[in-house]
Amino acid sequence: MPVLGPVLLAAARSDSVRRLVSAAPVTRQVVDRFVAGERLGQALATTRALAARGFDVTLDHLGEDVTDRAQAMRSRDAYLSLAEALTGERLGVRAEMSVKLSAFGQALPGGHDIAYRNVLPVVEAAAAAGTTVTLDMEDHTTVDSTLAILGALRERFPQTGAVVQSYLYRTEADCQVLTAAGARVRLVKGAYREPAAVAYSGRREVDRAYVRCLKVLLAGPGYAMVATHDPRLLAVAQALAARSGRDRDAYEFQMLFGVREAEQRRLAEQGHRVRVYVPYGTDWYAYFMRRLAERPANLAFFARSLLTRS
Ligand code: FDA
Asked: Are residues 197 and 296 in the same domain?
């Protein structure tokens, strides 16, 4: 992670910095690079455009860390509207949905049950739309709850997926369990600020752990979703998949909207399934700050646009 990464990740959870950044007039144009728009209609237009170019999509209605039940229900309702739109537009075959359980109330008192009750109708609606849901993974304190909710959802909807983060020491073991159960698993490096007691902090260690997890997922019976923009890891994944004779229908690559688009096209042109993670909605602040934290050049670009406008 770049030097400023931890500072930006702390800022991602600060209300005062949120107000400052959100109010800056030039923020919008930088945000637009990573977010499809504030409205559902814009997200659907982006989905249609990506599908026409041969990509699959996972849609994220932005929002996280809700502080009351009413907000959690609004998140649920936004996803129910999304599922309805996917049904109406017959886009379920190309687009799945990614949800953050903290947007469904996971951090509230009794939040595990609240999040489960809120996400279940979304998973049902996704199935009715011919698609599925992937549970994003948030900070390490949420992993046990999220994986338990995944297990409960998979009893009726086995196609429901989850994300695992290679920076956590526990993740290789989680991969073993999840793939043995035949689960859909998205492997990422991890985007939160984590203590050394639970996570690797060195880039090399995180990458090595990513390769170990990849080996487990690509050897197992589950569906592997290889989510990274890292050229070296993409090459390793392609080599491992080819070596294990893995069917191209048994894994896919995933990247974020607005990040390394040439690489997205290159993989798709080689015949790989490539899914683009498309966030939309008004609550883009924390997502945006994590994207800035991942790459110093993004921050420089943001700072330059602030300076040239002031
Ligand atoms: P790395 O950060 O090393 O980047 C490799 C290269 O990719 C960089 O050198 C740069 O060229 C490019 N790049 C990466 N990020 C960029 C950016 N923001 N802007 C411009 N270029 C960039 N995390 C999490 O904790 N929970 C989750 O649920 C998810 N979900 C998720 C879904 C999908 C589809 C993706 C692709 C990623 C996530 N993540 C996530 C984020 C993930 O943990 C990680 O922070 C980012 O993917 C960046 O890591 P890379 O693997 O791309 O490597």
From this structure: no
